[in-house]
């Protein structure tokens, strides 16, 4: 870039209606003219789990295009940045829903978001899965036993999903982060998402997501991790028509993620609130 530029900026808290209780995403609303290297540098500077850049769509079928970066790499798709960015473009008038639907273009294709009051419902990318056989090493990394067979779920990002005995077991785990980063890099996965049934009267399951290979020791409330859990449950014939998951308590957050099954679709639902607005000076 030639000289500093003032870019419209929002920091949005996702999967909450209460500021500072969800998962923040940095949204640069004027990504045009920024190179991929500049975007990556900004994402490393914000040091959030994801930073997004809103661009004009390359397809007439989309309302806008989104590029998504962790502090270390670009992602084709991620759940909480998608919902948070959709909230920001609607709030600022960058794009408008048509018949209650917003179309977002990203590396995973063109995705639909249904606007239902304060909740945005994301029609998630189709999930695929692959087997995972390194059970003993995973137990050692998590320092915990798991139920059933963990699977690698691919929803754009690839998460290794494991079920633990209950929410108490989920809350107690303290993964070996260097070993998890090595495993993640070797298997080309984002990290590990674990879950267990909850009995707190707030949510049906408790979820935690760890991605040290991307510079994210623990993601406070992870959209793609929750989609991966939903795909894991659906493959096992569980979850019925949907459920509410809770995530982030170990980091002082209290996120709520809604999942709805509609035929072959997995819909990820959540609310968002803007916590910071202003300009980002890039140059």
Number of strand segments = 18
CATH architecture of the largest domain: Roll
The main pleated sheet reads as: 18 strands, mixed
Q: What is the general shape?
A: globular
CATH topology grouping of the largest domain: Diaminopimelate Epimerase, Chain A, domain 1
CATH superfamily label of the largest domain: Diaminopimelate Epimerase, Chain A, domain 1
Oligomeric description of these chains: single chain
Q: Could you name the ranges where pLDDT drops below 50 across 5 or more consecutive residues? A: none
Characteristics:
283 residues, alpha+beta, Diaminopimelate Epimerase, Chain A, domain 1
Description:
The chain is an alpha+beta fold and 283 residues long. It has 2 domains: 5-124 and 270-282, Diaminopimelate Epimerase, Chain A, domain 1 (Roll); 128-266, Diaminopimelate Epimerase, Chain A, domain 1. Helix content is 22%, strand content 41%. It has an 18-stranded mixed β-sheet that branches. Strand 15 (242-247) and strand 16 (255-262) form a beta hairpin. The model has no long low-confidence stretch (mean pLDDT 95).
Short description:
With 283 residues, this protein is of the alpha+beta class. It is built from 6 helices and 18 strands.
Outline the secondary-structure elements:
Blueprint: E1 5-14, E2 23-28, H1 36-46, E3 51-55, E4 64-69, E5 74-75, H2 79-92, E6 101-106, E7 109-116, E8 119-123, E9 128-131, H3 135-142, E10 147-154, E11 158-163, H4 167-172, H5 177-187, E12 191-197, E13 205-211, E14 216-219, H6 223-235, E15 242-247, E16 255-262, E17 265-270, E18 272-282
């Amino acid at each position: 870039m030639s000289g500093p530029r003032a870019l419209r900026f929002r920091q949005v808290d996702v999967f909450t209606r209460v500021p500072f209780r969800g998962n923040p995403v940095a949204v640069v609303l004027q990504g045009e003219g920024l190179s991929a290297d500049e975007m990556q540098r900004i994402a490393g500077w914000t040091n959030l789990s994801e930073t997004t850049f809103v661009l004009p769509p390359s397809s007439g079928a989309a309302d806008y295009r989104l590029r998504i970066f962790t502090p270390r790499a670009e992602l084709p798709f991620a759940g909480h940045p998608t919902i948070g960015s959709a909230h920001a473009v609607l709030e600022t008038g960058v794009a408008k829903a048509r018949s209650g639907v917003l179309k977002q273009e990203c590396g995973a294709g063109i995705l639909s978001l249904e606007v239902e009051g304060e909740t945005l419902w994301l029609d998630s990318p189709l999930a695929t899965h692959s087997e995972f056989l390194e059970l003993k090493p995973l137990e050692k990394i998590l320092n915990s036993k798991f139920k059933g067979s963990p699977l690698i779920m691919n929803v754009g990002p690839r998460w290794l999903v494991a079920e633990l005995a209950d929410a108490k077991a989920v809350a107690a785990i303290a993964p070996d982060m260097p070993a998890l980063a090595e495993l993640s890099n070797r298997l080309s996965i984002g990290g590990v998402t674990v879950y267990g049934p909850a009995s707190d009267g707030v949510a049906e399951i408790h979820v935690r997501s760890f991605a040290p290979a991307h510079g994210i020791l623990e993601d406070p409330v992870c959209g793609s991790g929750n989609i991966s859990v939903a795909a894991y449950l659906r493959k096992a014939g569980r979850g019925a028509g949907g459920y509410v998951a809770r995530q982030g308590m170990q980091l002082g957050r209290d996120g709520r993620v809604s999942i709805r099954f509609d035929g072959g679709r997995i819909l990820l639902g959540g609310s968002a609130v803007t916590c910071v607005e202003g300009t980002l000076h890039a140059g």
